[in-house]
């Protein structure tokens, strides 16, 4: 198993991967540097039509894979990372949420329902990860895991970073009537129903927050 | 031997050199203040054709020499400095990394292979330091020494600050095929092979980083405002 580590330096975070004759996939452009006998190959994200799906998700077209033995470092960022250890289950990630994964994890794309895609802020297609192994998710802030057991989670905004595929995800009006939704100041909300886990980043890291505030000026 | 110290103050760093009837060299424009009996002399960077070489490196033409006894302070920076103690080995510096050195260290220029120079981001010529004594590098952030022992380091970007002269440096396509390199968004990478050391600054100092980000935001907002004003002026002119 490749060993993933989150390193914090000067307020930035970066991912280090220790590889022992293994394969790791990473987001395109994420390569920072590597040490040792590691070869890069660029290929689609797997699955039939992976290339076209990538086009449709609006995410990067090709996610390169790195094979060999050594240390691989990915680009640092003010944002943070969360490592998931998949035991066969499937996760659906927010746009831009995928960062890296072990070769044993299958990375694909999933189509949301039309209404959900248009109003939910998650886009029409989302990246999915399935299989056994680790997945690194990029997140604007510290992750809070919300475990649902036949329960319902409502989120106003786009700070849900990933969810188990077993959950039913819909976009609904905040109140029953359209007028009520508009006047309550909430409009549409993201709803997760059923049994599974949602990863939320309710608070961004302060550097991310400050830069967002500056952009908004 | 000149005493060299890095002073960290208010998130900025500056280099203090204490001279005892000694000679040091510094990047041109780096002098901040000095006290005591120190004379400044302008000189080329030494070596045959040093002047011409400096011209082609695109680096500063004259690196002045400071001689005498006293204290010499160099310009502070949001970035940082790294002191190397040369024991006769050769170091090759990235463009802009040379900051100061003891008089016993010889400073010259080295030509990279054409393709490395054009695509590697390190430029066609690089500054070389050789000899015995201290060498001060200017670096955007904390330095990490990577020791290679018959190994290979690949770097995507130009955050390698310096390398020992015995390493083989070249620029390679990231993936095997050119198309693969382009599709993967990685393009070309800098490769260091063999036995030696590479100094990398994988992150800038926190305050320098924040300053850079804020500068980017401000300049993009200023550019947007300018474009908007031009559009308005153009539509008014049409009316």
From TrEMBL, chain A:
Gene3D superfamilies: Mitochondrial biogenesis AIM24. Pfam families: AIM24. This is AIM24 family protein. It comes from Planktothricoides sp. SpSt-374.
From TrEMBL, chain B:
InterPro entries: AIM24, AIM24_sf, Trp_RNA-bd_attenuator-like_dom. This is AIM24 family protein. Pfam families: AIM24 (PF01987). It comes from Planktothricoides sp. SpSt-374. Coiled coil: none annotated.
